[in-house]
Specification:
By secondary structure, the chain is mostly helical. It is built from 9 helices and no strands. The longest helix is centred in the middle third of the chain and has 41 residues.
Length: about 250
């Protein structure tokens, strides 16, 4: 800095806040990066990920077969059935639905362990088959699943949109439980806060994850076995990027 002319006070440094104009921070990640990372990690570890889908796939196959048999019997012979026989068919359908929801709990626990596998992949840890049957925090996982299911159901019963909104804002809850060891209510609050802070990016990511997960159902077993693990990897990538966590290359 040059000196001022004689008799003038020395120059003062510029006051804070007179630097370059403010530049907003970039988004934590790009959608394309999330897609490419998830597909690459799926191709590297597909054996463990697909094996983790087997119980869910068997449950879905058994449910749809039972439902189809009962429904087909009703359609083909409904005109010849007595009222008692028709009621019996509906009872069987109700039992099949009830068994499905009962078995959905252990299947959902296995899906949570698939998320645990995806988190390990993001850490750079080679996933193992033993991770699929990890029982750490089992009680908290079940409580979280029941809490999320009940809250979403109440939201749908009251009105469709509240249930949809709760499911969206609570979409990272299980990952907070598994990755940061939060309790159920704390994890729900953390998920709401994270989604609210990154609303646009979170909404786009959740919609894309849902679309990919749904598209797999059109290809039946093979499609689901691919789309669900890829969707979980996308969710983990989004979660780790938004929380500034570890994402392996």
């Amino acid at each position: 800095m040059t000196e001022p002319p004689a008799g003038q006070p020395p120059y003062q440094p510029p006051s804070p806040g007179h630097g370059p104009p403010y530049q907003p921070s970039q988004e934590p990640y790009q959608i394309g990066e999330m897609l490419s990372w998830s597909w690459r990690k799926f191709t590297e570890h597909w054996k463990v990920l697909v094996l983790g889908m087997v119980p869910m796939l068997l449950l879905l196959i058994a449910f749809y077969v039972a439902y189809f048999v009962f429904y087909l019997d009703l359609m083909l012979h409904g005109d010849d059935m007595s009222d008692a026989e028709i009621r019996r068919v509906f009872v069987h359908i109700a039992i099949a639905i009830g068994v499905f929801f009962v078995l959905l709990i252990p299947a959902s626990v296995l899906q949570a362990n698939l998320q645990r596998v995806a988190l390990a992949i993001a850490d750079g840890t080679p996933p193992t088959y033993a991770m699929l049957y990890d029982t750490r925090r089992l009680g908290r996982i079940i409580v979280t699943l029941l809490t999320l299911g009940a809250a979403t159901l109440v939201g749908f019963v009251l009105c469709f949109l509240p249930g949809l909104a709760f499911g969206f804002f609570a979409s990272f809850t299980m990952l907070f439980v598994l990755d940061q060891d939060l309790r159920t209510i704390e994890a729900i609050k953390a998920s709401f806060r994270l989604v609210r802070e990154h609303l646009g990016l979170a909404l786009l990511s959740v919609l894309l994850i849902g679309v990919i997960g749904s598209l797999g159902s059109y290809a039946l077993v093979v499609g689901i076995a691919v789309s669900v693990p890829v969707s979980l990897l996308m969710q983990v990538y989004s979660f780790r990027a938004l929380t500034r966590g570890t994402i392996s290359q």
